[in-house]
Design goal:
The chain is mainly β. The chain is built from no helices and twelve strands.
């Protein structure tokens, strides 16, 4: 849900409809429950310029498995560009409904967001990635990107930043 605060001249957008996902078995399989993250944790959020054919699963030559191909993560972006925001997470011991999401904030103002309820939920011993197509905000400056996953009583987040120029 978008908050009421909006950056000057910026209309917050919801890009949930652009969400797409991949998953792969964790090479170590399910792990015992841990009290820190209840078996479900965001591991990374990245931002890159949208590129054809990526993200892709097990597509990195000599990358071992599992692997993913991504748009190269970047920090400085130009207005008018289209981005891929990737939220990565791992379900070590959690099985149940889960949703990946992100918010893009300039100061306290949300300028873009998206959520993706994972079809069939999460399963213990799986790695997940959810990707959204996002236009670069029209307001310049530092922009925080927070990727998160929720499932059951657990919520876990990862943070990165971009500089809109």
């Amino acid at each position: 849900m978008l908050g009421p605060a909006v950056a000057a001249g910026q209309i917050p957008i919801d890009v949930s409809a652009s969400g797409r996902a991949i998953s792969a078995p964790n090479p170590t399989g399910p792990l015992p429950p841990d009290a820190t993250n209840n078996g479900l944790a965001a591991t990374n959020v990245s931002v890159g310029i949208e590129a054809a054919g990526v993200p892709c699963e097990n597509c990195v030559l000599h990358g071992g498995t599992p692997n993913v191909g991504l748009p190269f993560p970047i920090f400085a972006v130009s207005k008018g560009s289209i981005l891929t925001v990737s939220t990565w997470f791992q379900s070590t011991s959690y099985t149940g409904p889960c949703t990946a999401s992100f918010v893009m904030k300039q100061g306290s103002s949300i300028v873009a967001s998206g959520s993706y309820p994972y079809p069939g939920g999460c399963m213990a011993g799986q790695l997940y990635g959810v990707f959204f197509t996002v236009p670069v905000p029209t307001t310049t400056g530092q922009t925080g990107v927070i990727g998160s996953v929720t499932g059951g009583a657990n919520k876990s987040s990862a943070v990165t930043a971009i500089n809109v120029q």
